[in-house]
Write a structure and sequence with these properties.
The structure is a single chain. By secondary structure, this protein is mainly α. It has a domain of 30 residues. It has a two-stranded antiparallel sheet with strand order 1-2. The longest helix is centred in the middle third of the chain and has 11 residues. The termini are far apart.
Length: 54
């Protein structure tokens, strides 16, 4: 799936490809590091992890 986003500064990014790499390669392809490199304000880590499945 090749969905590209063009940023206001003209750069193109492929966030879906990055997420697919994260699932394939594990934590070495951090989404947080990707967001920070793009200049996004990631915010603080949640105090309590979410429970997706109960």
């Amino acid at each position: 799936m090749n969905i590209a986003l063009e940023r206001p500064d003209g750069r193109r990014i492929w966030p879906v490809q990055r997420v697919m790499k994260r699932f394939s390669n594990g934590s070495e392809d951090s989404l947080v590091a990707y967001g920070v490199a793009l200049g996004l304000d990631i915010g603080a880590r949640p105090a309590k992890p979410r429970r997706w499945f109960r």
